[in-house]
Write a structure and sequence with these properties.
With 267 residues, the protein is an alpha/beta fold. Helices cover 33% and strands 24% of the residues. The chain is built from nine helices and twelve strands. Helix 6 packs across helix 7. The N and C termini lie far apart (40 Å). The N terminus is likely disordered.
Length: 267
């Protein structure tokens, strides 16, 4: 059941501490919430879930696709700068902020109401010397030449109210993403495997990146693509060792990521 939270949104919009870039006024889909079995969900006025938070474990990655977005951890142990395009409920941003205390964590979100709701209802911390939540168009962010070659990790989850295909999916967009990453940088992207946009996105990523691997489908069609700026040779024995370390420190099911990469390598 969807719950319209106009009063909560109005209260949240008054919260300060968010960096905003100048932009023309845009009409957004309404931000709506629902709760079920101890989880709070974010929607954009439809039944499609844009993110989730277990209320008693606000920093945990509740959705499996969000967990898979962290598959870059198999290859990068100490990232210096992690950027999230599309804030959602702030789940990935919060997790990275808590898990990597030496890293700069940036989240780029176009809709100011999403930022406010994340602060008031999804436990998103205020900006500080490591965390920077920016109200900005994701395409504008990756096209800023000052960001080129500065990111270790780029997590892309940019959807509109219909939540059936990324709103940014061109080769030009993915080229800008690649430009922002270091030579050894990695991008993870949330796609829908049963949507016409899937093949378009995969084709665009493979045109730009040296290597693209897709993990097995989860939920209602979510497929996480892992794109490498520089091609890597998979040493699965070492990857399983690293997966065990990740599971011990974070409880994330990292072994399943390696299993998925093995399956992809065989196809």
């Amino acid at each position: 059941m969807l719950i319209r939270r106009k009063s909560i949104e109005a209260q949240a919009n008054s919260k300060s501490g968010v960096t905003r870039s100048p932009s023309r006024k845009i009409k957004y889909a309404p931000v709506t919430l629902s709760e079920m079995d101890g989880c709070r969900y974010l929607h954009f006025g439809t039944e499609w879930v844009q993110g989730a938070m277990r209320i008693r474990k606000p920093d945990w990655l509740e959705l499996e696709y969000a967990q898979q977005m962290m598959a870059w951890m198999l290859f990068i142990e100490r990232p210096q700068h992690i950027v999230q395009l599309g804030l959602g409920t702030g789940a990935l941003t919060k997790f990275c902020y808590r898990q990597f205390p030496e890293a700069q964590v940036t989240a780029v979100e176009l809709n100011p109401s999403v930022i406010s709701i994340c602060q008031s209802m999804f436990k998103l911390p205020d900006n500080d010397n490591r965390l920077n939540v920016i109200e900005m168009n994701a395409l504008d962010y990756v096209n800023e030449t000052g960001h080129y070659g500065t990111l270790d990790v780029l997590q892309v989850d940019v959807y509109d109210a219909t939540a059936r295909g990324p709103v940014l999916d061109s080769a030009e967009f993915y080229q800008a993403c690649s430009d922002c990453l270091t030579a050894e940088g990695i991008m993870t992207v949330n796609l829908f495997g049963d949507h016409p946009s899937y093949l378009k996105n995969i084709k665009a990523m493979k045109y730009v990146f040296d290597q693209v691997v897709c993990l097995p489908e989860v939920h209602d069609g979510n497929v996480i693509a892992v794109a490498f700026n520089t091609k890597v040779k998979f040493d699965f024995a070492k990857l399983f060792e690293r997966a065990a370390q990740i599971h011990t420190s974070t409880k994330l099911p990292a072994k399943t990521w390696v299993n998925g990469m093995q399956i992809a390598a065989q196809n």
